[in-house]
Write a structure and sequence with these properties.
The chain is of the alpha/beta class. The chain contains 7 helices and 17 strands. The strands form 4 sheets. It has a 6-stranded antiparallel β-barrel with strand order 12-15-14-13-16-17.
Amino acid sequence: MKIAVAMSGGVDSSSAAALLKDEGHELVGFTMQLWNQRRHVNVDENGDPLPSRCCSLDDVYDARRVAEMLGFPFYVLNLEREFEESVIDPFIASYLSGETPIPCVACNSKLKFASLDKMALSLGCDKVATGHYARVEHDEAADRYRLFRGKNHWKDQTYFLWELTQDQLSRAYFPLGEMLKSEVRDIARDANLYTAEKEESQEICFVPDGKYSEFIDRYLDHEGRSSEIPGAGEIVNTEGEVLSEHSGIHRYTVGQRRGIGISHEKPLYVVKIERQRNRIVVGEKEELLSKEFTARDVNWVAFDEPTEPVRAYVKARYRHNPVPATIHALEGARARIVFDEPQPAITPGQATVFYDGEEVVGGGWIERRPAHQ
């Protein structure tokens, strides 16, 4: 086949390319330039640039070097404007509204796959390959493409792929889906690739130091929008009693324990962020528990929108072990998810994914956290 390969400059995409090349496919490599490092937003308190894991020059160079070593053409796609519109702006808006977003989902589905898929089609490519740890299979009887977890559940990345459409899944190719990380590095070593020992990034790529609120402050200041930075407000308990003052709601997230700055006989956690009242609600651990929540922009992967309740295992954040729940489809691409047992820290803005064993049933965006139940 002729395959477009997404090249991030890391070991996963490099190994995927090496594996496909060894299988005899015709490859075309692409790296996406997503974030302009010269905008002076990603800097530390001294104004010095932070180490980047988002389309830095080093990553582009590493991707190009792998393509040259493996002998296939390589191109850089400038998607800075699209990235800002589809990922950065919604990320900031979500934080300012009191949510805790996970931008990697939108980046994969609305930007990377959409852009690469379009480019791949224009070049006559049959598939779009990435280094994701996931699997796609075609169910001939149902004439449907199904998405499955990667063999290594710890590295499984279906949490970031549930928004992919049937059309996108029909061309998606995940060569690493059946592999462990150790096997992937062995492929890179055997091919003598420079990226074989390259470390992985653990943070959101455009916030390399993990300090989201500081990134938002710098970005808004850089854009002349400092007036949008949330100001101080009250920290209250679940009874509404004022306990302290916060310095901006975007500096807190549901489930947070550290940094609240309140002395109490029992540990206190952020249980709710009220944007309209500009206040943080804190409570004890049991007050974090919720039996249900609603999700918006639900995408059903395994089948069309169901007319009956669906039993599935539900993941409410990336490192959350899927737990049994019943999903009720609602009008307007929404769903009500009811857990068998209450779960902690259900956070608006995060993605939720539904599983039936290894298969992704669907997913959505956590819309709101109901009152304590």
